[in-house]
Amino acid sequence: MNNWKYVLLTMILFPLLGIVSSCSEESEETSEYDNWQQRNENAIVQWAANSSFRKIKTFSKDPSSAGDNSDYIYVQVLETGDGTDSPLYCDTARVAYRGCFIPTKSYSEGYVFDQSYLGEFNWATAGMTDFPITSSLRDGFSTALMNMHRGDRWRVYMPYQLGYGTTVSGSIPAYSNLIFDIALLDFWHPGDVHPSFKARKK
Q1: Using an 8 Å Cβ cutoff, are 74 and 156 in contact?
Q2: Computed over its alpha carbons, how large is the radius of gyration of the chain?
Q3: In degrees rounded to 5, what are phi and psi of residue 16?
Q4: Gap between the Cα atoms of 93 and 152, Å rounded
Q5: Which of 23, 55, 98, 180 has the fewest CB atoms within 10 Å, i.e. is most exposed?
């Protein structure tokens, strides 16, 4: 008879365990981006204070004014190319890229939301994408490209104000700073013959 009591108790408690587990999972999911705006704003302050970063004002702001921290991208140079000129706003750039968020609880290196290559970067094998700078890119990305040379590879830290701002865009939450690894292979002006792809040798 006592066995029936245990069976009955198990039947009552088992569904409750599932509910508790489910709530726990939901809690973890929602905490991934808790205080997201403040965390991203704190990151911008840290980038601005990092003297090892190159600081470049966005092309869309008055270059003669000092500006706020969010008016700049912050650059870590990973590789320096041998080019001497940079793309113009009206040009098309051929790049490899990987974009992620600032680090979170589950992603210590930042969640990768978009990329043109997998694994470690390699000039010879990385997938390349052609971007018209004027129409398809956020201010922070365009600003980076217009200051890069062929063969440069940069890690670019972009305040959310130079990305998607205060709105959600697909899988990108509002107030998300964007961190991009960008490799500039080539670029060309409007009307130029579209160059065929040639992997850069390193």
Answers
A1: yes
A2: 23
A3: -65, -35
A4: 12
A5: 23
